[in-house]
Write a structure and sequence with these properties.
The protein is an alpha/beta fold. The chain is built from 13 helices and ten strands. 48% of the residues are buried.
Length: 265
């Protein structure tokens, strides 16, 4: 493993591009390989065993691309599978749960924190445990929002239907008096507008992507794997054709993407 290798990033679909965007900004000398498992999205409704199986396959695929480091840009996988993956594969692997929890504790002034995510992430209790470990006084209120991922994958990021779903899902948080809300799925930052309107201006929305990019940078430096001499380069793989992928992806990344490649699963 050398510093010249690429950084592998994977998610169940397109949401992980929010993490890739921050990585591209923070680590301009690195190259990246992104894999979106669009054929099997969403992961959040699947069993823990199935998520682990898919995750192993995704890591193996990225290793075949000679990556030096892997970022799990999926909260569902980070919540349940990352500890197993770290034990089974001899490559640095980081998820998004711990960085997101740290950011939430840092921004909250009242220690009353909301968490939204897929059914799998919320069921795991991963955010709740990590936040409480960082701030034992914290009160954490969690809510699964399973419709958000398919809405994002469809490209419906700011529509009346999406706003109606957000209003229903997030109504309970008003009486919880939270001051921070963790967007516990990498798809959810794309719904920042509708989520923000549903919970109000006084609630800070916490996106783990920025903190995850910082974590990756720290790990690369500690392990002597950082490449500061390369040019901006990234390759995108999908497991199924997504007709609106290029349009949505370029909106997320704020830049043109190279040709999308396909990997069957």
């Amino acid at each position: 493993m050398t510093k010249d290798g690429a950084i592998g990033v994977f998610d169940s679909g397109i949401g992980g591009l929010t993490v890739l965007k921050e990585l591209l900004t923070r680590l301009p000398g690195e190259s990246f390989v992104y894999f979106g498992d669009t054929a099997r999205v969403p992961y959040g409704t699947k069993s823990a065993e199935t998520v682990l199986k898919f995750s192993r396959e995704n890591v193996t695929f990225l290793l075949d691309q000679s990556v030096k480091f892997i970022v799990v840009a999926c909260n569902t996988v980070s919540a349940g599978a990352v500890p197993r993956l770290q034990k089974e594969f001899r490559i640095p692997i980081v998820g998004v749960i711990e960085p997101g929890a740290r950011a939430a504790v840092k921004v909250s002034k009242t220690s009353r924190i909301g968490v939204i995510g897929t059914a799998g992430t919320i069921r795991s209790g991963a955010y709740q445990r990590e936040i409480k470990a960082l701030d034992p006084r914290a009160e954490v209120f969690a809510k699964a929002c399973p419709l958000f991922v398919p809405l994002v994958e469809e490209g419906w990021v700011d529509t009346p239907v999406t706003q109606a779903a957000a209003n229903v899902y997030l109504a309970d948080f008003e009486e919880r008096d939270i001051d921070a809300l963790v967007l516990g799925c990498t798809h959810y930052p794309l719904l920042r507008g509708v989520i923000g309107r549903a919970v109000g201006d006084r609630v800070a929305l916490v996106d783990s992507a920025v903190e995850t990019a910082r974590e990756v940078e720290r790990n690369l430096d500690e392990q002597g794997l950082r490449n500061g001499d390369g040019g901006e380069d990234f390759t995108v793989y999908l497991s199924d054709i997504a007709p609106n992928f290029k349009q949505v992806a370029e909106r997320i990344l704020g830049r043109k993407i190279p040709k999308v490649r396909f990997r069957s699963v």
